[in-house]
Amino acid sequence: MQHRLTFVKQKMKIKLYIVFLLFSTFVFAQQKRVTTSVDSTKVKIGAQINLTLKTTVDTLSKVIFPEGNLFGALEVLESYPTDTIREDFNYHLVKKYGLTQWDSGSYMLPRLQITINDKAHFSDSLLLEFAPVAVDTLKQHMYDIKDIAQAEGFLGNWWLYVLGILLVVGLLYLGYIYLKKNQKPKEEAIVYATPIEKATAHLKKLEQQHLIERGEVKAYYSELTDIARTYIEETIDIPAMESTTAELIDSFKKAIIRKKLSLTEETIANLEKVLKQADLVKFAKSKPLEFEIAEDRTKIEKTIFKIHQSIPDLVEEEEDLDDSKKIQERLAKKKRKQQIVLASFISVFLLFAVFIFFVATKGIDFVKDSIIGNPTKELLNGEWVTSEYGDPPIRIETPKVLTRMDDAESYTKGQSPFKEAILFGYGNFTDDFYINVMTTKLKDSLEIDLEKIVEGNLMLWEKSGAQNILVKTETHSSGEGVNGIRAFGTLVFLDKLTKRSTKLYYEMLLFKQNKGLQQIIVSKLEEDELGGEIIDRIIQSVELGKLE
């Protein structure tokens, strides 16, 4: 009996232990909120591995997945949007990432933190392998490097430019023909021998227009009075066209007295009456009867005829000849002016069309460099010069011969560390392109610290107006095994007089040989790509002579 009780107790303990294990496993599973998986653990370098993080939360939970450009040593190519699947009162969240590595080897994907309701949870760490790409030279043929191909120059496809210009000219010609065909024909300017002949012809033409029959009374009176005003202005020399009716009659009476014209008060009264009638028609919308219109026309005709009779014949002939000559000159001048305006317009339009054509086909940089002109392009494509400068010598290839600069003596005065300095250069620091070559010998008691010389150059530039100076330095060795420093960066130079700022890119090469220093400084406008090509060519050509 005792053995039986002991066996039952042991059996109960085993059951309790199993229950405890199951409960612990359940609790552990509940704590594991995030599952981690990848589509592959071994790929070639540069290939993408897809990482998937999954979690299940209730609808009120707030989940924050990790973000960044790097997960450990792995680069994140893409972070995909989170997929959300709702099931009853829970959300299944799936977050995917595209990962890669550009070097072969094994890399550990670290545990990533996922925040759920302000509590940190972590994914599993995984070991991923990136294998190198094998190149089989037996199956893959190897070829020699091709010779440098000559790029087509400005006139490589000359026929395209000719075709474009002919097309533009053709369109302009068709537009001219269309406008000429559809424009209203202009009346030829008739030169009249005398003002009376001109007034009579215009009165006759006025009647041929039949304005009264068409009900255009206002236009009829306007033209009728214009004929009278024009005749009075040309014969009596008073501003009749710009004067009001009262001003015209007042000037007309004074001119009669001044020129001693034999005109009656009735003639003056008839002219004034017709002018006032025209004002009523034009501004008060008055409508005179047909017989009144005919009478007004007769009054104007008689007034013009009586003024003509009152002018002395000799004076009239002289004035007529002068007026006719002036009219001819005025018309010829007007015609020449129209021709000049038309030619100027066509020329400007053609230039604009050609400019747009080249911008559309070649780009704005091509137009700026090839048509407008680019100083650095002229330097790059010009004849370069290779020469030696200074002592110890610097052999260098430049687009222009460097000239010796007088201010080199200032480097050796007073407490200067330089025993001897020789300076050559081209251009100014703020020009489109600048180069400076300097060789110096230091005093025996001094050691050369290239980094401090770089700092000294920057301080000098800052005192001269340089601002926002950015600099990077790296070790640099010449082909002759001379150690040095390369410093490069950008700065903004502010002209204190004009207040104009210029952003520059610069490079400095500094080499030391015992007590000798060799220095090359070049600069260009930051946005000038051709200037960068010049700098690269100069830097690659540098050869250093040994200090004796």
The total of helices stands at: 12
User: Which bin fits the share of residues in helices?
Assistant: 40-55%
Shape: elongated
SS elements, strand count: 22
- Main-sheet strand order equals 15-16-17-21-20-19-18
Feature tags:
seven-stranded antiparallel β-sheet, six-stranded antiparallel β-sheet, alpha+beta
What would your notes on this structure say?
The chain has 548 residues and is an alpha+beta fold. Helix content is 43%, strand content 26%. A 7-stranded antiparallel β-sheet has the order 15-16-17-21-20-19-18, with helices on both faces. Strands 1, 3, 5, 6, 7 and 8 form a 6-stranded antiparallel β-sheet that branches. Strands 2-12-9 form a 3-stranded mixed β-sheet, with no helix packed on it. A hairpin with a 2-residue loop joins strand 7 and strand 8. The relative contact order is 0.05.
Summarize the structure.
This protein has 548 residues and is of the alpha+beta class.
Topology:
Blueprint lengths: L1 H30 L2 E5 L3 E3 L4 E10 L4 E2 L5 E2 L2 E6 L3 E5 L2 E11 L4 E5 L3 E4 L2 E4 L3 E6 L26 H25 L12 H14 L8 H20 L8 H15 L5 H19 L6 H21 L2 H50 L1 H10 L1 H7 L3 E5 L4 E5 L4 E2 L13 E9 L6 E10 L7 H15 L1 E12 L5 E12 L6 E13 L2 E10 L3 H12 L2 E2 L4
Helix pairs in contact: 2-8, 3-4, 3-7, 4-6, 4-7, 5-6, 6-7, 8-9, 10-12
